[in-house]
């Protein structure tokens, strides 16, 4: 964006950063480290109908909802975006996003491809970042190594990953998560480049 396209000083909208990439590529890990580097960056906590994994807590990792609760929010138009992934629903509640942006905080959304495409339409100023694995074998190794999904879930996630990886070219920024520290550096540079020093 050129300087002429910027809103006048004092009215700049906080940044919305969308981070997408296949399951197991390291999005959650990268976002945790990114937020240590850029502490003002808030995390949008998504809603989901999937079961909490051991160690995940309500309202911190996700807003865990029943199918009925999620459907009610869909019908009420409460979601900025939502999608079905591996048989479960995931979405960004408008209220959750605005809780941060209305206070002037930049915010990061960790969402899958269909949701990122919806945000591209509804929030065209959002910065879109795609995370790639160095190889598909590395992705499989990370999903196995994480130990949170059974073999069937891992295969489903790897199948979805094929379509997701094919869509990397749609994204403004692509970061390869090979060495973790280098990937965090690249993400921090994108965020700092948008927000300013
Ligand atoms: N569209 C959308 N996708 C989401 C949202 N929250 C999480 N996801 C994505 O849903 C997929 C599955 O998430 P999860 O079950 O937590 O698995 P994990 O990302 O492999 O740990 C991942 O690609 C997430 O990025 C959301 O609010 N909206
Ligand atoms: N650069 C990396 N090199 C090796 N392992 C990684 C790297 N980044 C993340 N991991 C590991 O890969 C697994 C999946 O990471 P996670 O952040 O849960 O991915 P996602 O949120 O994209 O599903 C975790 O066990 C994590 O520790």
Secondary-structure map:
Elements lengths: L15 E5 L6 H11 L4 E2 L3 E2 L14 E2 L2 H9 L3 E7 L2 E6 H8 L5 E4 L2 H10 L4 E6 L3 H11 L4 H16 L6 E4 L3 H16 L2
Parallel strand pairs: 1-7, 1-8, 2-7, 3-4, 8-9
Antiparallel strand pairs: 3-6, 5-6
Helix pairs in contact: 1-7
The structure holds guanosine-5'-diphosphate and adenosine-5'-diphosphate (ADP).
Description:
The chain has a single domain (16-195), classed as 3-Layer(aba) Sandwich (Rossmann fold), CATH 3.40.50.300. 41% of the residues lie in helices and 19% in strands. It has helices at 27-37, 67-75, 94-101, 113-122, 136-146, 151-166, 180-195; strands at 16-20, 42-43, 47-48, 63-64, 79-85, 88-93, 107-110, 127-132, 173-176. The longest helix is centred in the C-terminal third of the chain and has 16 residues, at 151-166. The two termini are 16 Å apart. Guanosine-5'-diphosphate is lined by residues 23-24, 27-28, 46, 50, 81, 83, 85, 90-92, 110-112, 114-115.
In sequence order, what are the helices and strands, one letter per element? EHEEEHEEHEHEHHEH
Mean pLDDT: 92
- Strand content is 15-25%
User: How many separate structural domains?
Assistant: 1
Number of helices: 7
End-to-end separation: 16 Å
Name the strands of the widest sheet in spatial order. 2-7-1-8-9
| C-alpha geometry | globular
**What value does the Rg take, in angstroms?**
17 Å
| Structural class based on helices, strands and sheet pairing | alpha/beta
Biggest sheet character: 5 strands, parallel
> What oligomeric state best describes the polypeptide chains here?
single chain
Could you please say which CATH topology applies here? Rossmann fold
Protein name: Guanylate kinase
Organism: Baekduia soli
EC number: 2.7.4.8
Domain Guanylate kinase-like: 14-192
